[in-house]
Design a protein that fits this description.
alpha/beta; single chain; disordered N terminus; 14 strands; about 280 residues
Length: about 280
């Protein structure tokens, strides 16, 4: 913590080595590229496949800044995190249409072709947290999702299958995410947990951002550009007051309010509040 405080005060005497998982994805890649542009950081992008690495390198990212490791492989992710001072967790199970339709509703059935939430959002994030702790990381920033206080949230139904005995398997993505969040809180590693609302593929830096807790919505929209989420993830590493905080992140519509530029003052919106993990449920 002292090292980071000195770095913030006097500049990059020794760049902070930050791993970013999910660096080949959308939000994670925004965070990775932002860190690459900042001299106080030495980012390492962790991707799941050689194809993802090749795509980043082709786009101009230095090859030695990208490591291939599957977060569901505990040994591989631990090796990838060795020597890292901090971690941004940008991984998530990704739902996709299965090509089948629910006969009772007529709606498309979604699955998780690259890993169920239990494997990715719980065990994969647990492995990342354990690896960061073993590496001596001074900060883990976790990008999660809003909706965790409502077990009936529609996202939990994606990929869930009903079994003949009346039980279910698969799905429950927000329940597994919430379990990983609580594991991080209890790990003893300094943390920041960010719950974005609906993610937009729109330019960042054009909106007033809104913080809250426990899925409340009094002002603003339930959505936010991915690039703005990535900016908050990066600022959480730069501003010590973000450590030990868990909050929701949304935005106003573009053109409403004043564009957020002071990320330290943004925390004032919380009034000392953090998300309450006695609400809802976890897997």
């Amino acid at each position: 913590m002292l090292r980071l405080s000195l770095l913030l005060l006097v500049g990059p005497l020794d760049a902070l080595r930050v791993a970013v998982t999910g660096a080949g994805g959308q939000t994670g890649q925004h965070a990775f590229r932002k860190l690459l542009a900042l001299p106080e950081f030495e980012p390492v992008g962790i991707v799941r496949s050689e194809e993802s690495k090749a795509a980043l390198v082709k786009s101009g990212v230095p090859a030695d800044a990208v490591t291939v490791a599957d977060v569901t492989d505990e040994a591989a992710i631990a090796a990838a995190l060795a020597g890292c001072d901090a971690l941004i967790i940008g991984t998530s199970a990704k739902p996709a249409p299965s090509g089948e339709t629910d006969e009772s509703t007529g709606r498309p059935i979604f699955g998780f072709p690259n890993g169920q939430p239990e494997a990715v959002d719980w065990l994969g994030q647990k492995s990342q947290i354990d690896g960061a702790k073993a590496a001596g990381a001074i900060h883990v920033v976790l990008c999660s999702s809003m909706g965790g206080t409502d077990p009936g949230n529609m996202l939990n139904a994606l990929g869930r299958e009903s079994l003949p005995d009346g039980s279910t398997k698969g799905g429950d993505i927000l329940l597994w995410k919430r379990k990983a969040e609580k594991y991080l809180i209890d790990s003893g590693v300094p943390f920041t947990i960010v719950h974005p609302g609906g993610l937009l593929n729109e330019p960042g830096g054009k909106r007033q951002l809104v913080l809250g807790v426990d899925d409340e919505r009094t002002v603003g929209e339930r959505s936010i550009p991915r690039e703005d989420v990535a900016e908050v993830l990066v600022q959480a590493l730069r501003i010590p007051a973000y450590r030990g905080r868990s909050f929701d992140l949304r935005s106003m519509n573009e053109g409403e309010g004043a564009v957020t530029t002071d990320f330290a003052a943004l925390l004032d919106e919380l009034g000392g509040r953090d998300c309450d993990y006695s609400l809802g449920k976890m897997a």
